[in-house]
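We now fix the convention by which a protein and its fold are recorded. The integers have meaning only within a learned vocabulary of local backbone shapes. A complete example follows; check for yourself that the lines match position by position.
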Amino acid sequence: MHLISLLFSCMLLLLSPLSLKGETLVEGLVAILTFEGEDSRGGPLQEVLFFSDLERYRLFFEPHKDENTPNRDKEKNEVYLERLDTLIRQKLLEPEAVRFIPQKPTEKEVENHLVLIRKRFKNEVAFKDALQSVGFDLPELKVEILRFLWVQKLIQERIVEFIFIRPREVNAYYLEHQKDYTGRPFEEIEKDIEALLSRKKQKLKIEAYVARLKEKIKIEVMLKEENFDFR
């Protein structure tokens, strides 16, 4: 996308607030990702992220957090930046998924995940209100679901399946954190520890993968602290 066209589009969006029940969500630019190469017009190859993209991720894809976990103190900084970082990660991994996972998610897989998303809302009206609030329709959501699942397949097939936890790693963790498992025999918590260590390795490998991809692009973040009242 040419820079002039990008700026013009941003101005139009800023002048076109999205409707929310009882409030107005004013659209705004939060980040620009500039990739290697050129677009079809010979301009920079870019992915532009807006406030509505963050809100779409929060509404339809962000894992639900435990209501008892206190996070209000960081609601206006870490939570937003973590959300943006997760969205950037998704955008970076989407081309990798297309490149390395030739079998894209099936229509049935997309529909099954759509059922799970609908369950996030108390009824169909609330679900449709959420779609409308971020300027989304059902076909667009299905496209995003497909991309999301494609990245999950990439992570599963190229990262998770190559993670192995050795028995000595489980034993070492148990001995180091034995006080956390007082009164529970090792045999009872062995699988739990193995799963925990596997998740930690998975997180580190994904972070390393994404870090390598970030080295190849330019990331401009426009999300400022004064914007954190968005949600």
